[in-house]
Amino acid sequence: MTSASPAKSRLIATVDALRTALAESPDVLSFTLGGTIDEETAAAAEADGVPREFLDFCRVLDGASCGPSVQLFGLDEAEEHQFYCEPVVDSPLPLCPEKLYCVGMAQEAPVFLDRAGGGVLGAPEEGADWVDAERFEQLAPSVAAYFLERLATFDAYKRLASVDDELVEYDDWLKLLRRAGLAD
Asked: How far apart are alpha carbons 151 and 173 in whole angstroms?
């Protein structure tokens, strides 16, 4: 009998806490958390070239819309955003659909899964200027780590989403993190 890895167990526990908090929070937007994908959907998507690591994440959480400026896509939405992986004229970034898979957005810039190493990459520049970046930087070693360390952590999400102190109480994702016991 094999057990889930500690990272997967932590991901499942975090998502369960968020789902429970969301069910008890009628004042928070209900579309914040996606569902899960089944094995048949995952197998078909993998056959179509979707990276296994992203599919493993979607088996636990098929996307999270954390706020207007930060999203981790579910499978269907990710498939619609793969154009971000295509090379852009005059961009120094090594954009290539065979090497990258777009898994989300942060501050109007795409977030990519490195197909070879499994890490989550992003450009240091935000907004439309992301294509002018000289390089990608690693945001996390995996999609699960990106979610747990950047999105499901109160202070890290607050920085990533650029939520200033006066607006903290109005941000639905930060409310949800607090209610799930995930605030520091």
From this structure: 9
User: Which residues face 110 on adjacent strands?
Assistant: 105
User: Is residue 113 within 8 Å of residue 120, measured between CB atoms?
Assistant: yes
DSSP state of 49: T
The stretches of 24-136 forming alpha helices (DSSP H) are 39-47, 52-60, 75-80
Tens digits of residue pLDDT in 91-122: 999 999 999 999 999 999 999 999 999 999 99
Three-class SS state of 70: strand
d(CA 155, CA 152): 9
Kindly tell me the burial class for residue 142, based on how many C-beta atoms sit within 10 Å of its own C-beta (0-12, 13-18, 19 or more).
buried
Tokens of 65: 């819309």
40 contacts: CB under 8 Å, gap ≥ 6: none
| Number of CB atoms found within 10 A of residue 107's CB | 15
What phi and psi, each to the nearest 5 degrees, are found at residue 69?
A: -115, 0
71: enclosing H helix or E strand: strand 70-72
